[in-house]
Amino acid sequence: MPHSNSRRVSPSTHHGVWTTPSGKAEFIPFEGLTEDSEITAADVLKLTTIRSHDHYNTTIYGFDDRYRGIFGRRDVLFVNDADLAVRKLEHGDVVDVETALASDIPLRLVGLIAVVYDIAPGSVAAYYPEANALVPFSYRDTQSGTPSFKSVPVRITSSRRAAPVSV
Predict the structure, then answer these.
(1) Domain-wise residue ranges, the chain
(2) Per-residue tens of pLDDT for the chain, all 167 residues
(3) CA–CA separation, 114 vs 96, rounded Å?
(4) Cβ atoms 150, 99 nearer than 8 A
(5) Which contiguous run of DSSP H or E holds residue 84?
(6) Given the DSSP bridges, would you call strands 45-50 and 123-127 parallel, antiparallel or unpaired?
(7) Which residues contact 25 (CB under 8 A, 6 or more apart)?
(8) Are 56 and 134 in contact (CB under 8 A)?
(9) Bridge-partner residues for 116, per DSSP?
(10) Rounded CA gap, 24 and 27, in Å?
């Protein structure tokens, strides 16, 4: 039983009330949001690495991701349908992903399964740690040293390794 003198603190935002001049939530971008060089090549997408449902911190407990409807595998690349179509690829095609950064050593993942997903055009997502191979050691924030696992420029192409797969 709660102490008789206790009371619940309820922030106004919990009720959708914003104590700002506009009455709405207001966000102020800080200077660092555009510090990465822009890559404007039409064939370049931005990769983010993600966890699955059965993934906690660095431990993978299973191969199912009920959040995204993937079961029994982690070798997938989530792609917007329009981005696949531009590349003449389809859901279930086997693709290769290569980092689109100036580098002496190309970083590549081969044989991922393209999965149509409701992700922003120009963006793709893959599970980590599998996709960590696409993040160069040098591609990190200059102040914190944190690797850029959420915004890696990549290109995807049809793989020569295998036939399309059912997902």
Answers:
(1) 39-158
(2) 555 565 666 677 777 788 888 988 888 766 655 555 667 788 999 998 887 767 666 776 677 777 777 787 888 999 999 999 999 999 999 999 999 887 767 899 999 999 999 999 999 999 888 888 888 877 777 777 777 777 889 999 999 776 666 66
(3) 9
(4) no
(5) helix 81-86
(6) parallel
(7) 13, 18
(8) no
(9) 79
(10) 10
Task: Give the position of tokens 């990549």.
Answer: 154
What region, left, alpha or beta, does residue 57 occupy, with left being phi > 0 and alpha being psi -120 to 50 degrees?
Answer: left
CA torsion 93-96-99-103 (nearest 10°) is -160
DSSP label of 124: E
User: What architecture (CATH level 2) is domain 39-158?
Assistant: Beta Barrel (2.40)
Count of all residues that appear for the chain in the document: 167
pTM of the predicted model, to two decimals? 0.72
Strand bridging mode 108-116 / 123-127 = unpaired
